[in-house]
Amino acid sequence: MTTIEAKKRSEDTTRDAMQSEGKIPAVIYGFNVPSTSIAVGLIDFKKVWREAGETGTISVATDAGTFDALIHEVQVNPVTDEPIHVDFLAIDTSKPVEVNIPVEFVGESPAVKQGIGSLVKVLHEVRVSGLPKSLPHSLVADITKLVTLEDQIVTGDLELPAGITLIDGAEDVVAIVEKEKEEVVEDTPIDLSAIEVEKKGKKEDAEGEEAAA
Asked: Where are the beta strands (DSSP E) in 64-172?
């Protein structure tokens, strides 16, 4: 199991101060752990995040002890996409947990390939329950099944590992092919009466100028 070192931090420690030390703010809470503000190394966290994702159990080593946890939520910089804050959820590995599992779309839809329509990804993650050791990194949605506009992939079609159950309904739509809408260009009718009025006005103005001269 991957371990990440964490140090308790003061609430008044600024993000800039931590950044200068190569660290980011975080918090750990959950099973046997009161909510505690901590700091972790940015490089170390990115490595752990890449390996475990948000469903793999990791160890968080703090000043108060080492805890099994999940990477529960990650805030990222919208410009650089770098992590700027992390929530670690301490867990009891012997009991089921509820988590959101990302959906991985694979294959190519015949309906899209033939130009019948466009792929619409309705769900990007699905909520499941299971023991931490059984949680998959992702659930695969095979879009080669989308042959016509009537076809759809629902949560019940996703293959779940043994011991993992759906929390969401089995009929929730994951992906469909939607018919492409034709762009309608409306012709703007020409208002001939307005043109005539404008011409008449210009003519009267011109006659008025000549009379004044």
From this structure: 65-76, 83-90, 97-106, 117-121, 125-130, 139-142, 152-154, 165-166
**Phi, psi of 186, rounded to the nearest 5 degrees:** -90, 130
Instruction: Tell me how far apart the alpha carbons of residues 171 and 158 are, in angstroms, rounded to a whole number.
Output: 11
3 state DSSP class of 31:
coil
Report the alpha-carbon distance of residue 3 to residue 45 in Å, rounded.
10
Per-residue pLDDT of the chain (213 residues; tens, 9 = 90+): 889 999 998 877 787 888 888 999 999 999 999 999 999 999 999 999 999 998 999 999 998 899 999 999 999 999 999 999 999 999 999 999 999 999 999 999 999 999 999 999 999 999 999 999 999 999 999 999 999 999 999 999 999 999 999 998 899 999 999 987 765 556 556 665 655 555 555 555 555 555 555
Q: 37 near 92, Cβ under 8 Å? A: no
Is 62 within 8 Å of 8 (Cβ atoms)? yes
